[in-house]
Fold this sequence. Notes:
By secondary structure, the chain is an alpha+beta fold. Helices cover 49% and strands 16% of the residues. The protein has one domain (2-89): 2-Layer Sandwich (Alpha-Beta Plaits). A hairpin with a 2-residue loop joins strand 2 (24-27) and strand 3. The chain is rod-shaped. One iron/sulfur cluster binds next to helix 1.
Amino acid sequence: xxxxxxxxxxxxxxxxQVCPNQAISIFDAKAEINQRLCSExxxxxxxCPREAIGNKISINVxxxxxxxxxxxxxxxxxxAKVSLAEKIEx
Length: 90
Ligand code: SF4
Ligand code: SF4
């Protein structure tokens, strides 16, 4: 499934011009893909100057990685607090 990263999209419309299925529209200066019309030909990926279009799964993987890193950071901070609390108790 193809998706648009709206943080990267600048609404230039280049993807819209090459789509053979008219699957792309611009709303609020951001591209949107109608999944029902998209045939995953990847033409839009090739012309996007911002690399804003990609496989939705890979976009989600990036988000999952960020969340995992945040969770690791929080766990590290929590472990440090527990360790400090144990030292104080002794
Ligand atoms: S080509 Fe890329 S930057 Fe331009 S409208 Fe499409 S997704 Fe957005
Ligand atoms: S992958 Fe092809 S059909 Fe799908 S939105 Fe992009 S240009 Fe259109």
